[in-house]
Amino acid sequence: MKTNNRRETILSKTEYDIMSIIWDINRSVSAREIYEQLDPKPAYTTLATEMRTLYEKGFVDHFKKDGEGKTHYYIAKIGKGEYVRKAMHDVKKTFFGGSLRSMLSYFIQEEELTEEELVSFLHEIEEQFSTHNS
């Protein structure tokens, strides 16, 4: 299978659902195993298309095991933590001009945090800051 070297960093909802299954299983997994965990279940051909897209985007690799016929096995090439870091970086850059302050302000306002939640959040930030600076 030829790849087109697309290295898009944002997953669609369906792609993310599939990757979540792969990340949770945390080993090579067959398309059938992925299919069994999807809800709602798409057409199997749709899953095959999504798996090819994930491969082309560089999120998974695939291989066949000797003696198991046409069954492809997939393994994550990018961990969930790495994906979240890249996706959040892209969101920050695209929507907030790279400003963490603007991004945090937006989420604080959008989520309508209570004063108690905001104080708790600030304490968490202080703890992280003191841990990194000690």
Features:
single chain, 134 residues, mainly alpha, 3-stranded antiparallel sheet, 6 helices, 3 strands, 60% helix, elongated, disordered N terminus
> Radius of gyration, Cα only, in angstroms?
19 Å
Q: How are the strands of the biggest sheet laid out side by side?
A: 1-3-2
Calculate the terminal CA-CA distance, rounded to whole Å: 50 Å
Order of helices and strands: HEHHEEHHH
Structural class: mainly alpha
Query: Please, how many helices?
Result: 6
Tell me about the biggest sheet? 3 strands, antiparallel
- Percent strand equals 5-15%
Q: What is the helix fraction of residues, given as a range?
A: 55-70%
Notes on the protein architecture:
The radius of gyration is 19 Å and the shape is elongated. It has helices at residues 13-25, 31-37, 44-57, 80-96, 100-110, 115-132, and strands spanning 29-30, 60-64, 72-76. The protein has 134 residues and is mainly alpha-helical. The chain has a 3-stranded antiparallel beta sheet.
Q: What's the helix and strand layout?
A:
Blueprint: H1 13-25, E1 29-30, H2 31-37, H3 44-57, E2 60-64, E3 72-76, H4 80-96, H5 100-110, H6 115-132
Antiparallel strand pairs: 1-3, 2-3
Summarize the structure.
This protein is mostly helical and 134 residues long.
